[in-house]
Amino acid sequence: MKKILLLSIVLVTLLSMKNDRPAYRLFDKNGKSSSYKELINEAADADIVFFGELHDNPICHWLEYEITADLYAAKGKNLMLGAEMFEADNQLIVNEYLAGLIKEKNFEAEARLWPNYKTDYKRLLNFARDSSLAFIATNIPRRYASMVNKGGFEVLSTLDKNALQFMAPLPVQYDSTLACYADMAKMMGDSPSHVTANLTRAQALKDATMAFFILQNFKKGKTFLHYNGSYHSDRFQSIIWYLQQADPKLKIVTISSVEQDDLDDLKKESEGLASFIIAISESMSKSQ
């Protein structure tokens, strides 16, 4: 009787596992199954950690917060945060908000915030505020990236010197053969006419600027956790290429996010995207 009962329990357990529909699974760069604990352990030992998100995916935003909280538990004041979603010329107002010098409504009215700020990034900024952590606005002001998209790098020479403090030092290195830019250029072949050949240069300027402000604020012994779209750190290119030009000894851990229908195995084309890859169910709802 006991054996029959035990067999029944095992069968029910196996059936329930078979019918599980996990929201995500975690893999290492080789496509092997990994764990959240392994990710946190490696991230806590890194100089710089990139969380490459899918901007509209709620699993990414949930994990960003969880990873932030767990890295803070491991690193304490030796953790610092930064994000693509905040532009460098808003650093002053970010600092004023973190220090409690201005009201939340004033910050939100005056800072150029993404449409999904309140649902997806506000609690990250508030975590920094409540934990007394630095939060670095790393991205170039969008008006300057737009100028480069229209007129190339040359247009930057027309800017006032005060504007140049909000971007990477000029001239910006640009390698059009890097896959991150070459693939984008290929895709532009069938793109609408308003997309210019300078789009990859504007993208490179963003990457160079984010790398610049990360390095400018990073201190040895700390871990800098940076939130960005996955394309800004996938395959250890983009921002990371610029970081490695400046300091090849940096210990960098990357996280990428992909969507796929079957989460049993990582798709072959996603192997090598990052140190850790979050595979998320394609049926997941969107956050914006």
Write a concise synopsis of the structure shown:
By secondary structure, the protein is of the alpha/beta class.
Put simply, the count of helices is 10
- The main sheet orders its strands as 1-7-6-2-5-3-4
Question: Helix coverage percent of residues?
Answer: 40-55%
Which blocks of ≥5 consecutive residues have pLDDT under 50? 1-18
Tell me the count of domains.
1
Distance, first to last CA:
54 Å
Structure description:
The chain has 288 residues and is α/β, with parallel strands linked by helices. The chain has a single domain (28-281), classed as Rossmann fold (3-Layer(aba) Sandwich). The chain is built from 10 helices and 7 strands. It has helices at 2-18, 36-44, 58-75, 91-98, 104-110, 117-131, 142-151, 179-187, 199-217, 239-246, and strands spanning 24-28, 48-53, 79-87, 135-139, 223-229, 252-260, 276-281. A 7-stranded mixed β-sheet has the order 1-7-6-2-5-3-4. Helix 3 (58-75) runs parallel beside helix 6 (117-131). The longest helix has 19 residues, at 199-217. The radius of gyration is 21 Å and the shape is globular. The N and C termini lie far apart (54 Å). Residues 1-18 have low confidence and may be disordered.
State the main characteristics:
globular, 10 helices, 7 strands, seven-stranded mixed β-sheet, Rossmann fold, 16% strand, 288 residues, disordered N terminus, single chain, alpha/beta
